[in-house]
Known about the structure:
This protein has about 280 residues and is mainly alpha-helical. The protein has helices spanning about 55-85, 90-120, 140-165, 170-200, 205-225, 235-240, 245-270, 275-280; strands spanning about 20-25, 25-30, 35, 125. The protein has a two-stranded antiparallel sheet with strand order 1-2.
Amino acid sequence: MPDRTEAVESGPHAPTGIGRPLLIEGQARLAPAARDQAWGAVELDPDTSRLDLVSRMLLAGYWTDLGRAKHASVGAFARLALQLLSVGAPPELVARVQGAMGDELRHARLAFAVASRFRGAPVGPGALPIDGALDDLGIGPLVFELVRGGCLATTAGSLEARELHEHVSDPALRFVLGEIARDASDHVVLAWRTLQWVCDEHEDDARPYVSIELARLSGERERVLSEPPRSPVRDESLLRAGYASALVRRDIHMVALDRVLFGLRALVDRGLPASDEADRATLV
Length: 284
């Protein structure tokens, strides 16, 4: 039996990595990592023979966080299905959200399998803290979830997975990153089309919240530009090994912000449909 009580990394609010965050009261919730064999029980064997111990531990931490993020994404899509049901969404949207939840479950298992290989010991998620997740299912929280979790975070995750996929050579890692990048692109399109539906069906309630998010993200872009990166180093050798540094992720975040701001402006101005922008936003 796996030991689910031994914490491997601290806290439910660690870095999220690639994934749709489970946002509760504006904060991303994550399960702590724990010694667990079940989640990583997938036949994957990335080559670690050329990695020194420090690099292996960096990669183990990165892929563990990725697994935790994908595990939380299962919860994020489960809640999104309830949010959509509460506002009368059509069955096609709900079905696509259910499909995305299955994608994230598969991604989590693949990521934990890779993390376990780098770590040299099994690792998986502990209990996901979901208290407060269903406190408010109104239009405002739904728009916040779609913009922040769907449009922005998922765009950044898709770009990060693609960036890694373009650099890594290990067949096992390329397979996992290819799966994540492909599905994340679909999830970006789903987020924009869902946001478009919400604005069409609940226009008077939804559009003011879209404008609020547009202003918030514009301010966030200015803050990111004014702050120096935590690490000015773009380590190409680690990128080839399957690790995205803080500088790589900052640059990706800026690209994602620009794409989302363009789409939100179009939506607010009632020009280009947001779903069309989604299709273009998935192209690198």
